[in-house]
Specification:
One of its GO terms (molecular function) is hydrolase activity. With about 900 residues, this protein is an alpha/beta fold. The chain has 21 helices and 43 strands. Helix content is about 25%, strand content about 25%. The chain has an eight-stranded parallel beta barrel with strand order 1-2-3-12-13-14-15-16, surrounded by five helices. Helix 2 runs parallel beside helix 3, helix 6 crosses helix 8 and helix 12 packs parallel to helix 13. The longest helix is centred in the N-terminal third of the chain and has 32 residues.
Length: about 900
């Protein structure tokens, strides 16, 4: 008996310990958010208030990022990693655990990584080359700087290397020679948006020793940390001007098999002048890509795993091969930055967003992170979402949902809102805000409606996280072509996801072909040289990843420069009968200056093997190999397909205006189909016709979860249903009332925005439209869905005393319960607007709410924020209402 009791006690202890670190204690299917900490001026009262609010609104977790503070609150600032900061961090973990919220944190403050512990030796570096013309046989004084290398050139040819160890204060050379001296300098870049105690130089991301020194200050904190702390994070690479590290020459020679110091004259040129020089530059860029992977990203992920946590990383913005960098961490993270003009009727785009300066978000960019995750078996792919979606105080949830749908289509299944600023409950509205976010904290104008969006995201992400992707095609990402593009002094090819993605993604052969495949209904994953080398072959002559995914065809879009290793791998696969096909043309040149004559001959021989594998369009090839094509793409319907044990599941979204309803076919659905509306939870089932088609209603802006099921006895109609539209006509004037009579009531003949009355121009809040309407006995059975024309910005619907819910996304419509409508009816429409008009008033009155340090507060074009001259933002409801069946 005593032994049994002892075992029970041990079991309880083990269960408790397991629960303390069990990731299931919080949800990854719910959305998370960046949680900005201005000045780290957090209190226990404020932490509890914030976290309870987030939990109640349906968040799964928060990501702590300390930043600059708010003026006037200096006494509350906490020095980053100081004793008081650590105490508040421990309190966060305690409260988050109680509320079943996960916590991630940036490995530092602001971005990029750096701070007070980074000295000159560990800071980001750049090179500067000075040339000395020898006019006489005499010695010349070296620059008074950190000389790393010097080489002598005569008549433009390398003559002599002055090895670093032998460099003295004076150097000499023959008359007429040129001596190139490479000097190491710091970039001087400071951490952007740093929090108190986090200020300092940016780290050298190409130096493992620099990262090891940097990480050491976090070890005491992490040794004391526990669940629900989950992941440590590295933000997008925004290290400006860093193009040198002391290990460069050693790493370069090891990778490329020649000495870069013999080509300092090339590094000094403002522009490459020959193919050889361009190849040297490409070798230089490839070296930095390798260093970023092996000296930072892999050590970052490995150390975090060793500490017992998960790594999350934004690889973009860096000069590395993004696929390899994303693949090196536990949770690769992409981002959706800016506005996109979705072709959805009624969708609003902020006219002040500068697409030329900041670019247009693109699903192809998102797929770099998700492809890396798919190929390496990562369960989660995250995304920084809605950064600068619109100007402050103007963004509606109707703008947010298509963005959410787009990132899901791009393979993301773990969404992070950007973002939610910590704001003390006692600070007057608008509270503390971050300058570049869409605001998802309790001060947001859409806070009351946000739980509906969060429930939608949770429903979708549960499915997206439960199944592996179902792609048939691999498309090679030609990073070497990017490294050979427009080279010159100090150039680094940083692959950010904003405007410059036009150069390295959209306006390239890869970008055009990946878009073409997408539009034709083929689901494709992107692959790099390194990831390709890890593929396994199956007896069916297909490729298989270690995670179990299988691909039928490999496409190479017009690659100009390819390595010997990759060319020989492709040649080997072609000889084995695998479907490797080149679009537009075969590779044109070797990728590196360092190849020997024998290696160049091997490259040419490998190319000969590939001659019969060039195609002008891959569609016939894909059909021959029975690659799955989804015909719904012809109607502008976007999709992502997932594998299941019984077939397939789809997330589909209509982000265009080509389709509303009709007969469709899904390639991997047979027998029966189940359609789940993730907005409402409503599930419908249908049997397929003999031609495997079924009737689908999917209005622009709508989305569905679609899954294959066995044939069912009772189902919805499998043929097109004639639409019946019934106008909702008030029998008398419409009344508009405001809470507590804060504004005079209005009476109107038809639904109009309340801002047509000048007395409402400064108002932010709710207004309720109410009126009576009649329906005939014949109309009542057909009135199943209520449609709105224009809503600014969400509405709570009540008919005949029954609350039906919120309408907050496009298309503006809501289902009507059976039996609710009568011949005589009464409707109440409680509308909430965005807060643009309220802040417009604050700025006209010179109210000092913009009182933050560093960047303070800027608008969507990075100018000082000033809403005082804004035109009035329409608010309320306008246009017709009508029912449909």
């Amino acid at each position: 008996m005593r032994k049994f009791a002892y075992l029970i006690i041990c079991l309880l202890i083990l269960t408790k310990a397991a629960g303390a670190s069990d990731p299931a204690a919080f949800s990854t299917s719910k959305p998370w958010a960046y949680w900005w900490w201005p000045g780290s001026a957090v209190s226990e009262k404020g932490i509890t208030h914030n976290l309870e609010s987030f939990a109640k609104a349906g968040f799964g977790g928060l990501h702590i990022i300390p930043i600059y503070g708010s003026k006037g609150y200096e006494s509350a600032f906490l020095s980053f990693l100081g004793p008081a900061w650590k105490q508040k961090f421990a309190f966060v973990l305690k409260e988050a655990k109680r509320l079943h919220l996960g916590i991630d944190m940036t490995l530092g403050t602001g971005w990029p990584l750096g701070g007070p512990t980074i000295n000159a030796a560990d800071a980001a570096k750049r090179y500067q080359i000075e040339s000395i013309q020898i006019v006489a046989n005499q010695s010349y004084k070296l620059p008074d700087a950190d000389v790393q290398a010097a080489s002598v050139f005569v008549d433009g040819n390398f003559e002599q290397e002055l090895i670093s160890a032998h460099l003295s204060q004076y150097i000499a050379g023959p008359k007429g020679a040129t001596i190139y001296v490479l000097v190491q300098k710091g970039t001087g870049q400071q951490v952007k948006r740093a929090a108190p105690g986090g200020e300092g130089l940016v780290m050298d991301h190409f130096s493992k020793s620099a990262f090891e020194h940097y990480r050491s200050e976090f070890i005491p904190l992490l040794k004391q940390a526990h669940a629900p702390l989950r992941a440590l994070y590295n933000d997008s690479y925004e290290v400006y001007g860093a193009n040198y590290t002391p290990k460069l020459f050693e790493a370069f020679e090891q990778l490329n098999h020649y000495d870069l110091r013999k080509h300092l004259d090339v590094l000094a040129k403002p522009k490459a002048e020959s193919e050889d020089e361009n190849a040297i530059w490409a070798d230089y860029h490839r070296t930095f890509s390798s260093l970023l992977l092996t000296e930072f990203t892999q050590p970052f992920a490995g150390w975090i795993k060793q500490m017992g946590f998960v790594s999350r990383d934004q690889a973009h913005g860096s000069p590395g091969n993004l696929l390899d960098l994303y693949a090196a961490v536990d949770i690769p993270e992409t981002e959706f930055f800016g506005s996109k003009a979705f072709d959805i009727p009624g969708y609003q785009v902020d006219p002040d967003y500068d697409t030329i300066r900041f670019g247009i978000p693109d699903v192809r960019n998102l797929k770099l992170a998700s492809s890396a995750a798919n190929l390496t078996g990562k369960k989660l792919v995250s995304s920084e979402t809605t950064t600068w979606l619109g100007n402050h105080f103007k963004v509606s949830l109707a703008q947010v949902k298509p963005v959410v749908d787009q990132v899901f289509i791009g393979g993301v299944n773990h969404l992070f809102f950007h973002g939610a600023t910590y704001s003390p409950p006692e600070v007057a509205w608008p509270g503390w805000l971050f300058y570049a976010s869409t605001n998802f904290n309790p001060q947001s104008h859409f806070w009351e409606a946000l739980p509906a969006l969060n429930r939608y995201i949770e429903t979708c992400q549960k499915m997206l996280q439960s199944h592996q992707t179902d792609s048939d095609v691999l498309m090679y990402f030609p990073m070497e072509d990017i490294w050979h593009e427009r080279n010159g002094t100090g150039k680094m090819h940083a692959l950010d996801l904003h405007a410059n993605s036009r150069d390295w993604m959209k306006n390239t052969s890869f970008g055009r072909w990946s878009e073409h495949m997408q539009e034709k209904g083929y689901q494709v994953d992107y692959i790099s040289d390194q990831l390709m080398a890890g593929l396994q072959l199956t007896p069916k002559r297909t490729w298989k990843t270690k995670s179990g995914l299988e691909y039928k065809v490999l496409l190479i879009p017009a690659a100009h420069f390819v390595s010997l290793e990759t060319m020989e791998l492709w040649a080997k696969w072609v000889k084995q009968g695998l479907p490797v096909y080149f679009l537009e043309h075969l590779p044109l040149q070797v990728n590196s200056f360092g190849l020997t004559a024998d290696e160049k001959a091997r490259w040419a021989a490998a190319k000969e093997t590939l001659l019969m594998h060039w195609v002008s369009d891959p569609i016939n090839i894909l059909e021959r190999y029975k690659v799955t094509r989804e015909g719904i793409a012809d109607y502008g319907i976007s999709f992502i397909r997932k594998k299941t044990g019984t077939g397939a599941q789809y997330f589909v979204a209509n982000l265009s205006n080509k389709f509303s309803d009709g007969m469709v076919q899904f390639a991997k659905i047979s027998g029966g189909v189940e359609l789940e509306d993730p907005m409402t939870g409503e599930i419908k089932k249908a049997n397929l016709r003999k031609d495997k088609q079924f009737y689908l209603q999917l209005a622009p802006g709508q989305s569905l979860l679609v899954r294959s099921i066995p044939a069912v006895k009772k189902s919805m109609p499998s043929e097109a249903v004639a639409k019946v539209f019934t106008p909702l006509v008030p029998v008398a004037k419409i009344q508009l009332n405001f809470p507590q009579q804060v504004l005079p009531a209005q009476s109107m003949e038809s639904l109009q925005f309340w801002t047509q009355d000048s007395s409402t121009h400064d108002y932010w809040g709710k207004g309720t439209y109410s009126f009576d309407f009649d329906l005939s006995a014949e109309q009542i059975p057909q009135a199943k869905v209520l449609h709105f024309d224009k809503i600014r910005d969400w509405v709570r619907v009540k008919i005949n005393g029954k609350e039906l819910g919120l309408v907050w996304s496009l298309p503006y419509q809501i289902n009507i319960p059976v039996g609710l409508l009568q011949v005589k009816n009464h409707i109440e429409l409680e509308v909430m607007n965005v807060s643009a008009n309220r802040v417009r008033k604050l700025d006209r009155e010179k109210f000092n709410w913009k009182n933050f340090y560093e960047i303070n507060f800027v608008d969507i074009q990075y100018r000082p924020f000033d809403a005082s001259t804004w035109v009035v933002t329409p608010s309320g409801i306008e246009g017709e209402l009508y029912f449909s069946n």
